[in-house]
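Exercise 3.2. Students should predict the tertiary structure of the chain below and write it as structure tokens, then compare their answer with the key that follows.

Predict this chain's 3D structure.
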Amino acid sequence: MKKVFITICLSISLAAHSQDSPFIRKMVDTLTSPYFWGRGYTNDGMGKAADFIAAQFKAFGLQPLSEKSFMQPFSFPVNTFPSRMELSINGVPLDPGKDFIMAPESRSVKGAGKLVQKDSTHFVDPANRIIVTLEKKLTWDVAHEVADYTGITIDAKSLKGLPIDIKANIENKFIKNFKTANICGYVKGTAKPDSIIFITAHYDHLGGMGSSTYFPGANDNASGTGLLLSLAQYYAAHPQLYSIGFLSFAGEEAGLIGSKYYTDNPLLPLKNISFLLNLDLEGTGDEGITVVNATEFPRQFQYMQDINNKVHYLAAVNARGKAANSDHYFFTENKVPSFFFYTLGGIKAYHDVFDKSATLPLNEVNDLSSFIKAFIAKIMGF
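Answer key:
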């Protein structure tokens, strides 16, 4: 009878495991689609993504951490580029995202002028207060204020010769109180409901630059969000002794704003969090993972090493120290034991228009899911 029971449990586990990859792929495809417009600050991209994730939580059967809803609203200032995005250099039109990106703090500009070379990579149009920078790779970001100039970074490969003439028609829109929300839900524990293990991932990305270009954010961080949703679906169907919570943060790309807001305004006491696992950049994995805070929590890191040494889910489980590079950080600062791990190897697209679902392998998400479940079981004492 015992062998039959073990066989049934193993079959259930393998069946759940086999569902992870197609589900996560579907989530990444969905969240990187034009409808969500880069899950950012124009075309209501972030708002649409928040509604979608909250609806998924509800469909799975999670309970909201708040009495009222899955949403934890907050706001912050942000500079956006909603419409006009026209640029030509030496009379040649350039494509936003592919050939150039805006400095995120840039103001609007409309005009034509001559560029004065300052050094090998910087050129200035003094009349229109435009600064042009040549780079080998374009990576975008988010700003909370507007400067008194327009900064434009151009992929050097898109030009023939040095930039001399410039014509620009670019619009920015500063939003003083951009409204968004963290999405917060949990599965109540069967024996120790006041002890909670959190799984977290930011759902926001960079959004759009102009009316025709958006940044899909497949690896960063539709991959982590898809993995979080897969785990939420699993734990909703398989409650554990501890409560398992799920926090999907907004505002990470703008400076960890959503997770900072949550730790300043927790929906349950932070001391009740037994452990927190933050998922960000989970779309590759050929070379394993790196675990941030491994040196801060060596006992729990040893759990991860032991699990991987036994089952060989991943090529490597590497240790890294404390770092303020994702949403785990402010929990760590508030004495919550936390790890952030990210995958290694594979594609290098990051904060650019090439971070697409079609080229994201997601080759380790099944193993990552199993690895996380084994780690959570160990934290609970199994």
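Discussion points: Residues 84-170 form one domain. The radius of gyration is 22 Å.
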